[in-house]
């Protein structure tokens, strides 16, 4: 492993980061849906057309996973990330369909040093996926734990 | 499709349902982690041992997806489910490791008829995965939309 480039101090409240674009692949989506979320509107074309969604659409967990990969590629892979305990919002405000081109983004909404483990910083971030620059299809707000630059220097 | 057996009326507040057991498969977990969440502690044995987690562990989205499959198999596949707009809690209070045997469960915490679409019922449910009957490793609270028995009869 190379040394992290992104630490707690690099993710202050208010920072927005574009996380790139992802296109929803039909076959991968369907394979995911069949394995993890085989509801009719996720795996059966005919049932999906008759559903509220109007067509075969992504499991919300597939959508979340697509966002996660964008976040890892753009931020976490170069970071001192130490995982996430969870969050207080997850939303799928519109269905996601095969071929959709989604822009991934994030915004840091709060950042604080951990009281119990001062070598750690906790950020609250909102992650989003947006279609056609207009329709938000995924939103999640959760906590990320990151090493501190000073914390590392103090213990290293 | 056969007619649904589980409608909004079958999921009143307070109802608890055991959703079966799932064992975390090492190879499937690693493949998921590599595709969607390739952070060092999810894909690299050595880095994982040195991390806070102490070993290679599941992406939180893999854990969520395992719970979802249990929910679909036990409840949604026989139901009038119409998807979910999201929720207000998602938590990974402890890491999940290959070979873990997890018990899935759910509890309905609230249920109400949709004001804008009275043929729909909205339930709020908490889903959980628990290891060894003691350690909660996943918790999510979100809304599920279900058809109403009466709503169906009225429009059918």
Oligomer kind: homodimer
Tally of extended strands of chain A? 5
Q: Structural class given helices, strands, pairing of chain A?
A: alpha+beta
Element pattern of chain A in H and E:
EHHHHEEEEH
Strand order, main sheet of chain A: write it out: 1-3-4-5-2
Q: Please state the average pLDDT score of chain A.
A: 94
- Determine the number of helices of chain A (DSSP H or I, runs of at least 4 residues): 5
Biggest β-sheet strands, sense, barrel of chain A: 5 strands, antiparallel
In short:
The structure is a homodimer of 156-residue chains. Helices cover 28% and strands 33% of the residues of chain A.
List keywords for this structure.
alpha+beta, homodimer, elongated, about 30% helix, five-stranded antiparallel sheet
Describe what this molecule looks like in 3D:
The structure is a homodimer of 156-residue chains. The two termini of chain A are 15 Å apart. In chain A, strand 3 (101-113) and strand 4 (120-131) form a beta hairpin. The longest helix of chain A is centred in the middle third of the chain and has 15 residues, at 60-74. Chain A is built from 5 helices and 5 strands, in the order βααααββββα. Helices cover 28% and strands 33% of the residues of chain A. The radius of gyration of chain A is 18 Å and the shape is elongated. Chain A has helices spanning 26-36, 40-43, 45-50, 60-74, 149-155; strands at 16-23, 86-91, 101-113, 120-131, 135-147. Chain A is an alpha+beta fold and 156 residues long. A 5-stranded antiparallel beta sheet of chain A has the order 1-3-4-5-2. Strand 2 of chain A pairs antiparallel with strand 2 (86-91) of chain B.
């Amino acid at each position: 492993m190379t040394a992290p480039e992104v630490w707690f101090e690099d993710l202050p409240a208010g920072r927005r980061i574009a996380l790139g674009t992802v296109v929803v692949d039909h076959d991968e989506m369907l394979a995911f849906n069949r394995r993890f979320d085989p509801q009719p509107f996720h795996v059966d074309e005919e049932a999906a057309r008759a559903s509220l969604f109007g067509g075969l659409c992504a499991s919300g967990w597939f959508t979340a996973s697509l966002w996660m990969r964008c976040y890892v590629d753009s931020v976490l892979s170069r970071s001192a990330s130490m995982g996430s305990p969870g969050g207080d919002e997850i939303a799928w405000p519109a269905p996601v369909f095969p071929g959709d081109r989604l822009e991934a983004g994030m915004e840091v909404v709060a950042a604080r040093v951990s009281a119990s483990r001062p070598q750690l910083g906790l950020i609250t971030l909102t992650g989003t996926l947006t279609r056609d620059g207009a329709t938000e299809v995924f939103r999640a707000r959760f906590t990320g734990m990151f090493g501190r630059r000073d914390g590392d220097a103090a213990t290293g």
